[in-house]
Write a structure and sequence with these properties.
The complex is a heterodimer of chains A (302) and B (307). With 302 residues, chain A is of the alpha/beta class. In chain A, 43% of the residues lie in helices and 17% in strands. In chain A, the strands form two sheets. Chain A has an eight-stranded mixed β-sheet, sandwiched between helices. Chain A has a four-stranded mixed β-sheet with strand order 4-3-10-9, with helices on one face. The mean pLDDT of chain A is 96. Chain B has 307 residues and is α/β, with parallel strands linked by helices. Chain B contains twelve helices and twelve strands. The N and C termini of chain B lie far apart (50 Å). The mean pLDDT of chain B is 96.
């Protein structure tokens, strides 16, 4: 099994799965691969162990992989999929990106059986060889483009055996869209305000409270989903209220990206919803506004 | 004749120092900055830049020292209006008080404490460069008129406009001063928060097609709220926004709200977009985009308390 991309999600998968399978973590930076090869990956927080996956910057070994998990940021799926092309033999590919579109990018590089996944687990990368496991919420996976359900079920079982939470389902769209609407809203608002995902996001007392904007954005998201023929698995506003009540003050990745002046995933998350709204002929003025503002923020880096 | 400037920051100082040039006017200033006040009393209030002026102004941090005045000119940041007028109202028991502040809603606050209120909109700008010393960046006009619910007499409005004009601050007295106020409000509300949220200068906001559409969306809501009140704008904010984006005008200008955000100072959002939204609610005009940017800026301000 190969995990491509050693961010928070990739590191959590690689470390856990290394306890039940032969895992190689494909890294971009040689010093990252060296640190993992030398020290393994330490997981702290929700779990506490050191795992010893292989680590490399060389994709050559992919030929023998049974499953490649693409765990890069959405912006980096294209180069990751290009590494698979001509290398991955009869293995399968699982994508686990935020937003929409990663599956299509991978498909354009090969005819492998594909799994589509969204993950709700979260953490913080403390070092190349140390990841803090913060939220032990599940990963949901489903077959993509005619892959057998059995593949999703077997993969979910393996993930569960490794110590993470996972569930296989025949159709990912209801879950994926619930998360997409949640993410598009929470990430964009956090990136623009500098607030972690905390109680402000659910406040509704005064007319200027942030909760009204959050709910307005999520209502637009729900209308877009309805127009796209998707029935949501969970209500994004309820997800938001629950998450803010947990009191974890989670720092969404888009906020971390703008603070570090890195490109964000906004085109794949908020932008994906704006494009879906246009495709379906639905008005989404608030979602469009926050999308443009985050794009403007990215433009200000230069 | 006596005038008291309430809040002697950059704009207040432009009025104070210029008005102090008149022989028939005694000028006082109320400000909480002790160093600034001491310097004004010791060396006079000095302007540099668009005009070189030194004005003999009697400044104080103690409102009890203020003598009765014919006119008050309030130039504090919007969030300090209530405290400033509450402290100084006694000096204006027989006078008229004019706001030259940003945004909308300031006159309403003044009217809670004084009887005769003048609505004002001013375009000159500057910045304090040291105690008692203000850089005068931009000359510009001022328009004033009676504040309808609690008006000063038109004769008093004209007397104040005449004094300002004679002092080198061209000022027009009009019956309905809402047009220029809402034109400035709509311009600022459509551009300031976009600069503040993105970090982009005015010119870069305007040349980004997506953001320019958002600016227009904000302008349209402001125009609808103004129209519902029967306010006729004295110029089209859209044209002014595009004009200001020219390289020879204000392409590189960082909106004052962006400067506030960068310095983590409280912004005037409640009186800009928050004002558009508030008047919109009163008039039954929906303002979803102004509501949204108000919530975002207030969220940004809240984030400073957390780190």
């Amino acid at each position: 099994m190969w995990v491509i991309g050693g961010g928070v999600i990739g590191s959590l998968f690689a470390a856990h799965l290394a306890r039940v399978a032969d895992v190689t973590l494909l890294c971009r930076r040689p010093e990252h691969a060296a640190a993992v090869s030398e020290n393994g990956i330490r997981v702290s927080g929700r779990a506490d162990f050191v795992a010893r996956p292989r680590a490399s910057t060389d994709p050559a070994g992919l030929t023998d992989a049974g499953l490649a998990i693409v765990a890069t940021k959405a912006n980096d799926v294209e180069p990751a999929a290009a590494q698979l092309e001509g290398r991955l033999g009869d293995g399968s590919v699982m994508t686990v990106q935020n937003g929409l579109g990663a599956e299509e990018v991978v498909r354009s590089h090969g005819a492998w059986p594909q799994l589509s996944a969204v993950t709700f687990m979260s953490g913080t990368k403390l070092a190349d060889d140390h990841v803090e496991y913060v939220l032990d919420t599940p990963t949901w996976l489903a077959p993509y483009d005619g892959a057998p359900l059995d593949l999703a079920e077997r993969t979910a079982t393996l993930i569960v055996e490794s110590g993470l939470k996972a569930e296989a389902m025949p159709d990912l769209e209801p879950a994926r869209w619930s998360k997409l609407i949640f993410n598009a809203t929470v990430n964009s608002v956090a990136a623009l305000t500098g607030l972690p995902h905390d109680y402000h996001f659910a406040e509704l007392d005064r007319p200027t409270d942030l909760g009204h904007l959050v709910r307005g954005l999520m209502d637009e998201g729900k209308q877009i989903a309805r127009a796209a023929g998707i029935s949501l698995r969970e209500d994004p506003w309820e997800m938001n209220v629950l998450a803010t009540q947990r009191g974890s003050r989670h720092y969404p990745s888009m906020l971390e990206d703008v603070e570090a002046r890195r490109p964000t995933e906004v085109d794949f998350i908020t932008g994906a919803l704006v494009r879906e709204a246009e495709r379906c002929g639905v008005e989404a003025p608030l979602m469009t506004a926050v999308y443009r503002l985050v794009k403007g923020r990215e433009a200000s880096y230069q | 004749m006596r005038a008291t400037i309430v809040g002697c920051g950059a704009v207040g100082s432009l009025f104070a120092a210029n008005l102090a040039q008149l022989d028939d006017l005694e000028v006082w200033a109320f400000d909480l900055d002790r160093e600034h006040v001491a310097a004004i009393n010791e060396h006079g209030l000095r302007l540099s830049g668009a005009g070189e002026v030194v004005g003999k102004v009697q400044a104080t941090t103690d409102p009890a020292e203020l003598p009765p005045s014919d006119f008050g000119i309030v130039a504090t940041k919007c969030m300090h209006t209530a405290a400033a007028i509450e402290a100084t109202a006694r000096a204006f028991a027989d006078g008229a008080v004019c706001s030259v502040q940003n945004g909308v809603g300031n006159e309403e606050v003044l009217a809670e404490h004084v009887e005769r209120v003048i609505r004002g909109t001013t375009f000159p700008a500057g910045r304090i460069i040291g105690p008692g010393h203000v850089q005068w960046d931009v000359k510009g006009d001022t328009t004033i008129g009676p504040f309808e619910p609690s008006p000063a007499a038109m004769a008093d409005v004209e007397r104040l406009a005449d004094a300002c004009t004679r002092a080198g601050m061209p000022t027009k007295a009009v019956e309905d001063a809402r047009g220029p106020q809402w034109r400035k409000l709509i311009f600022n509300a459509a551009t300031n928060p976009i600069g503040a949220l993105t970090g982009l200068t005015h010119g870069r906001v305007v040349e980004d097609a997506g953001l320019r559409r958002l600016v227009s969306g904000l302008v349209d809501e402001g125009k609808a709220v103004a129209a519902m009140q029967g306010i006729e704008l004295d110029a089209d904010p859209e044209e002014l926004i595009d004009h200001a984006a020219r390289p020879d005008v204000a392409y590189d200008h960082k909106a004052s709200m962006l400067q506030d955000v960068e310095a983590r100072r409280p912004t005037e959002i409640d009186y800009l977009n928050g004002g558009v939204s508030r008047f919109g609610r009163e008039q039954g005009v929906p303002t979803p985009l102004n509501d949204a940017v108000t919530a975002l800026i207030k969220g940004l301000e809240a984030s400073w308390a957390q780190t």
